[in-house]
Design a protein that fits this description.
Blueprint: E1 8-12, E2 15-21, E3 24-39, E4 48-61, E5 67-75, E6 82-88, E7 94-99, E8 139-144, E9 151-158, E10 180-190, E11 202-213, E12 227-238, E13 241-251, E14 260-273, E15 278-291, E16 300-314, E17 317-327, E18 339-349
Length: 350
């Protein structure tokens, strides 16, 4: 058994504490947010909400120069939310073992648009949008190449079942309830500056995902397609301004009349850093749900949302405001699907 030969405990700026040993360090990061949310689309009830979270982050270095990072997160009233193990090699890229954090593969680009605070749909407005996630919501492993000539390639895989189940060590997930079996994602993240300062702020990303399907699991024999997703987009930053646009599609493989055949999303965003402390942004999202079957009622339903956001940061405290509106929320053409919302948030990081 290895003995702990040296332990130190000290307060750090931006973290609760750091424990150092001869093999590495462990940080504990924390934060809390109090919000006030108003939504015209339904009964708000008590509008006050609160989020607290802790992240344990350990890091170290091996003899060959490979560094590793272990992250464990507990958020949103959960004792444990997610975890990951990342290993960066000196020249062969990085390997990430991920417990459904949502950031690997195509899931890291489901909405990559610039914003002052949250995504257009993500501040409590209740859009009910469907976004391509690939294998990111399941147990997965991702390999990322070193960035060469501005290009980084990523490949993530969820072997056996892309079922969204978090699994402990020495265990397997089982089939779960999904109709998707093995899945994999491929991503190309490109910064094509070509040595030109004018292009240094350009980022282009293209991603795709494929999951095999269980034809006998929650699918009729008429369903023969696999589950496929794709994203393409770009952002460009020049000085304090950043603008972006992306387009995505999710093909479910379901071919029975009345079921969802595909979702298609168009997302736009622009942000402006007024100063080091103040930023504003505007975003729009258009999402279409298409059902199979020529006689299906509301075969195509389009959901639209937009939001204006402002964020002001002072040290470890930030004040954020988001105001937006949505039509056909949750892909419902009923009048209840049209509403606006406003959220005010006070966040503290320590």
């Amino acid at each position: 058994m290895n003995k702990l030969t040296k332990v130190g405990l000290s307060a750090l700026c931006g973290s609760l504490a750091s424990v150092a040993a001869n093999a590495g360090t462990m940080e504990v990061l924390g934060g809390a947010t109090a919000t006030h949310t108003s939504n015209s689309g339904g009964v708000t009830g008590n509008p006050i909400g609160m989020h607290t979270g802790l992240t344990f982050k350990g890091s170290g270095e091996l003899d060959n120069g490979t560094t590793f990072t272990v992250t464990i997160t507990g958020a949103d009233q959960g004792g444990y939310s997610s975890g990951s193990i990342n290993m960066d090699t000196p020249s062969l890229g990085s390997f990430n073992f991920n417990q459904a954090t949502g950031g690997n593969g195509i899931g890291g680009y489901d909405d990559a648009m610039p914003t002052a605070w949250e995504e257009t749909w993500g501040f409590g407005m209740g859009t009910g949008i469907d976004l391509p996630k690939g294998v990111s919501s399941s147990m997965n492993v991702q390999y990322s190449t070193p960035r060469v000539a501005g290009i980084m390639l990523k490949a993530a895989v969820a072997p056996g079942s892309n079922n969204g189940v978090k699994t402990n060590d020495k265990a397997a997930s089982g089939a779960g309830t999904t109709y998707k079996s093995s899945g994999y994602d491929l991503v190309a993240d490109i910064n094509p500056s070509f040595g030109l300062d004018a292009l240094s702020g350009l980022n282009i990303f293209v991603a795709g995902s494929h999951s095999d399907t269980h034809k006998e699991h929650s699918l009729s024999k008429g369903n023969t397609g696999d589950h496929e997703e794709g994203i393409a987009g770009a952002t460009f930053a020049y000085g304090p301004v950043k603008i972006g646009y992306q387009r995505s599609i999710e093909m479910t493989g379901r071919e029975t009349a009345g079921e969802v055949e595909y979702y298609q999303n168009n997302i736009f965003g622009v942000s402006f850093n007024v100063s080091d402390n103040l930023s504003i942004s505007y975003g729009e999202v258009e999402s279409r749900k298409h059902l199979t079957g020529s006689g299906t009622t509301d075969k195509d339903i389009e959901m639209n949302a937009e939001s204006l956001q402002v964020a002001y940061t002072m040290g470890g405290m930030s004040l954020k405001i988001a105001d937006g509106e949505v039509t056909n929320a949750s892909y419902s053409s009923a009048s209840a699907g049209d509403h606006d919302a406003r959220t005010i948030a006070l966040s503290l990081a320590f």
